[in-house]
Every structure is written in structure tokens, then in C-alpha cells.
């Protein structure tokens, strides 16, 4: 085996595992550890196949290796684990077959001649192309995986992947008598079938990608409609509060009028200090906070912050907002940003309601090449385990909760330019979303 072949096989092994990890959203290993694991397992496979003389062990061992990793994902069912294992093995192998065939065809048309190294070099180039493609398409792969398991295409593609696994066994030049006979009788037919199967799966991916985009647009529109309806409802409540306040204020003025007319200074002072001064301060605070939102030039963000601000004030929470400079754009997908800040604010408001201090502080500003969105709220707890709060199902409130911060962490992990910092110094709990431009 040439060094080119070894590197090519290693890259293909990395591609298989990387694709599988993105399909099941596996986050227990960092990318450097993933690469190291791929290299070690590829070497192990080479040793086993060489010693035993059974090339089909390559497929069998790799299948069970990926399957065992997937079983560590608690929320992943066994059947979906098998599906994604097949998807990784079959799709990468079929893609390699098609690209190698295309590479050899192009080479035959070219004036170059690498003699014995030709196949090795083409395999290496194809392997590099595949691993780079998987890396750059990893976010799209995650979206595809979430969509396909809930779509009508799931069972059809399941059948295609099983068929692809059978073809892989035949194409590995197996030595087990039954498989060897199939390879001898149907090897060429299986090769043609692999190419046809690849294009069928490619068509399924294109269809799924189109349907995924339509579904995302529909979900985004439904979310925006719901937020707009919520915003209108909050404005109606605020209008009712203002109408009630106006009615009460008329009565206050009548009381003042009586005090002024009778020259009862004590009555005037009492009404002023007990009613007018606190109410005036409340009005000024609310107006000042809402005016600050004018610094945000993104309507969707301004809308959701307005809704959450009104909601917090209705709960008698002391809200402080700091937006020192104009915010004209968000350095991450707007829908993702709105989902993240909505969860952070909802959690902050809910926790503040149960705290003694009832303080909620919001800051949104830019420094150098970064944007910062900060939510700080008072908490009823004296200690918080910062390592557990982002785990799925973990919640200090009640059972069947704990999806919010887990969702936030998942979205942050998928964004290359975004980090989330968490701090707790009783009684204040602070979460800072940092977005690099």
C-alpha cells in the first residue's frame, strides 16, 4: 500500500465518522479527538482485514463501531441510530465510487501518466474532497437529518440505505463463500447499481433540501406571526392599563383640586408624595426604557424586546436596559438570535418573579469586532450548578422542564462565531451572548 492509499483511507474514515456525528448531533468528542479516533480505528481496521484476510470485516466492524457510538446518545432511538449509521457508510462510499470513476475518466482524457500511482493519487484527491465537503456542509447536514426522520421519505431512504449496504458487501471483494459467489456473479452489476443508487439518493437529498427550506420558512413565518400576535396583545393590555391610570389620575386631580381650593396644604402634600410622585417615577422609567429600544434598527429584535419588557414590567419587575449605541445588524442568523434571546429573557423573567430583589437587567452593545447581549436577573437560589444547567431535562423548577437552555446551548454550538458565557454571584445570574463579527 502506497502512502497515498493510507492517507486516503484515513480521510475516508474521518469522513464517515464526521458525517455520522453531524447526523446524530454527537457532541461528546471534540473535532481533534474525532480525527484521532478515526485514525486509530482506520489503522485497526487495516490490521484486522490484513490478518484475517476478510475484506468484508471492514464493513461489519465499521457498522458496529458507529452503531455503538450512537447508542451513547440517550435521545436517539435504535432504529434511527441504524438509519444514520447506514446513511454515513453508504453515502460516503457511493460518493467515493462516483468521484473515483469520474476522476479516472478525466485522467484518461488528460495527457498525464502517473503509472502505478494513478489510482492512489485519484483516491487521495477524492478523499480530501469528501472530507472537506462534509466539513463545510455540516450545518446543512444537521438540518437535513432533523427533517428527513420526520418526513415521508424516511422509510423509502431507509430501504435504499439497506440496499446500499448489501451492495457494499458485494463490492468489497469478500472471501466468505456466499458473498464471494455474489461478487463473482453480480460484481459488475452491483457497481452499476451503486452508481444508480447514488444518483437516486442525491435526488432524495435535493428534494429533502427543498422541503426543508420550505418548512423552515413556514416555521419562521408562524413564529413571527405568533410573536406579532403576542406583541399586539401586550399593547392592548398596556392600553387598558393606561386607560385605567387616566381614570384614576382624574380622581387624583379632583382630590388635589379640593385641597388647593380649601388651601389644605397637608392634603396636597399627602396626595403628591403618596400618589403622584411614585406614579410619575414609574411612568418616566417605562418611557425611558422603551425609548432606549429605538437604538435597535432591526424590527424583529425590537419587537421581541418590547414584548418581553412589557411582560416584565407587568410582573412588577425592576427592568434596566442599556443600549449605548445604535445596533443596525446582528452578526448571526436573525431567527436563531431571536430564539436564543427569547429563551434567555423568558428564563430571566420567570426566575426574577420568584426572587426577592426582582431585578432584570438587559444590555446590548458592540465593542471592537464583537456584539454583546447580556441578560442579568436576580435569583431565588443561593447556588447554581453552572455545569448542569445546559443539560437536557435539567431544571430547578419542575419535572418535564429543562429544554430551554439545552436548546440555547445547541444553537450556540452550531454557530461558529458565537459563544455564551454564564456567571452567578448570588443573587445575580448573568448570561452573556458574544457574537464575533
What keywords describe this structure?
437 residues, alpha+beta, Heat Shock Protein 90, 2 domains, five-stranded mixed β-sheet, 12 helices, 5 strands, 68% helix
Short description:
With 437 residues, the protein is α+β, with helices and mostly antiparallel strands. The chain has helices at residues 3-24, 31-52, 57-70, 78-109, 118-136, 138-148, 153-171, 177-261, 265-292, 299-314, 334-353, 404-414; strands spanning 318-322, 359-367, 370-378, 418-425, 428-436.
Decide which structural class fits the backbone. alpha+beta
The coarse silhouette is elongated
Radius of gyration: 31 Å
Span between termini: 46 Å
Described by strand count, sense and barrel closure, the largest sheet is: 5 strands, mixed
Q: What is the count of DSSP helices, taking H or I runs of 4+ residues?
A: 12
What is the tally of beta strands? Answer: 5
Describe the protein's architecture and organization.
- The chain is an alpha+beta fold and 437 residues long.
- It folds into 2 domains: 3-219, no CATH class; 297-436, 2-Layer Sandwich (Heat Shock Protein 90), CATH 3.30.565.10.
- Helices cover 68% and strands 9% of the residues.
- It has helices at residues 3-24, 31-52, 57-70, 78-109, 118-136, 138-148, 153-171, 177-261, 265-292, 299-314, 334-353, 404-414, and strands spanning 318-322, 359-367, 370-378, 418-425, 428-436.
- Strands 1-2-3-5-4 form a 5-stranded mixed sheet, covered by helices on one side.
- Helix 11 links the parallel strand 1 (318-322) and strand 2.
- The longest helix has 85 residues, at 177-261.
- The model is unreliable at 398-403 (pLDDT under 50).
Amino acid at each position: 500500500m502506497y502512502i497515498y492509499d493510507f492517507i486516503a483511507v484515513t480521510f475516508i474514515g474521518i469522513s464517515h465518522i464526521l458525517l455520522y456525528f453531524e447526523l446524530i448531533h454527537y457532541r461528546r468528542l471534540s473535532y481533534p479527538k474525532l480525527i484521532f479516533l478515526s485514525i486509530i480505528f482506520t489503522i485497526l481496521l487495516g490490521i484486522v482485514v490484513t490478518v484475517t484476510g476478510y475484506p468484508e470485516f471492514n464493513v461489519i466492524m465499521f457498522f458496529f463501531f458507529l452503531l455503538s457510538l450512537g447508542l451513547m446518545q440517550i435521545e436517539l432511538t435504535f432504529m434511527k441510530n441504524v438509519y444514520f449509521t447506514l446513511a454515513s457508510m453508504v453515502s460516503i462510499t457511493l460518493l467515493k465510487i462516483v468521484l473515483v470513476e469520474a476522476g479516472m475518466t478525466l485522467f484518461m482524457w488528460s495527457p498525464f501518466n502517473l503509472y502505478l500511482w494513478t489510482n492512489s493519487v485519484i483516491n487521495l484527491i477524492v478523499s480530501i474532497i469528501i472530507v472537506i465537503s462534509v466539513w463545510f456542509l455540516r450545518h446543512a447536514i444537521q438540518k437535513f437529518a432533523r427533517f428527513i426522520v420526520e418526513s415521508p421519505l424516511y422509510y423509502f431512504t431507509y430501504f435504499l440505505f439497506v440496499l446500499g449496504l448489501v451492495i457494499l458487501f458485494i463490492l468489497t471483494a469478500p472471501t466468505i463463500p456466499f458473498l464471494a459467489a455474489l461478487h463473482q456473479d453480480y460484481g459488475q452489476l452491483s457497481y452499476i447499481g451503486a452508481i444508480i443508487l447514488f444518483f437516486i439518493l442525491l435526488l432524495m437529498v435535493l428534494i429533502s433540501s427543498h422541503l426543508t427550506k420550505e418548512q423552515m420558512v413556514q416555521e419562521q413565518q408562524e413564529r413571527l406571526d405568533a410573536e406579532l400576535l403576542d406583541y399586539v396583545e401586550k399593547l392592548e393590555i398596556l392600553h387598558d392599563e393606561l386607560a385605567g391610570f387616566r381614570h384614576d389620575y382624574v380622581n387624583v386631580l379632583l382630590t388635589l383640586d379640593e385641597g388647593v381650593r380649601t388651601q389644605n396644604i397637608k392634603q396636597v402634600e399627602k396626595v403628591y408624595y403618596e400618589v403622584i410622585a411614585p406614579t410619575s417615577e414609574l411612568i418616566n422609567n417605562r418611557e425611558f426604557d422603551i425609548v432606549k429600544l429605538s437604538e435597535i434598527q432591526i424590527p424583529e429584535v425590537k419587537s421581541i424586546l418590547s414584548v418581553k419588557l412589557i411582560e416584565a414590567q407587568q410582573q412588577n419587575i425592576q427592568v434596566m436596559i442599556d443600549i449605548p449605541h445604535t445596533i443596525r445588524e446582528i452578526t448571526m442568523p436573525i431567527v436563531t438570535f431571536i430564539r436564543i434571546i427569547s429563551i434567555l429573557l423568558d428564563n430571566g423573567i420567570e426566575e426574577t418573579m420568584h426572587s426577592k430583589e426582582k431585578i432584570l437587567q438587559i444590555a446590548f452593545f458592540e465593542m471592537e469586532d464583537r456584539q454583546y447581549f447580556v441578560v442579568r436577573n436576580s435569583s431565588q437560589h443561593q447556588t447554581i450548578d453552572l455545569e448542569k444547567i445546559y443539560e437536557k431535562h435539567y431544571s430547578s423548577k419542575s419535572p418535564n422542564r429543562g429544554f430551554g437552555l439545552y436548546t440555547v446551548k445547541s444553537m450556540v454550538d452550531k454557530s461558529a462565531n458565537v459563544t455564551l458565557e454564564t456567571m452567578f454571584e448570588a443573587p445575580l445570574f448573568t448570561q452573556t451572548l458574544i457574537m464575533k463579527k
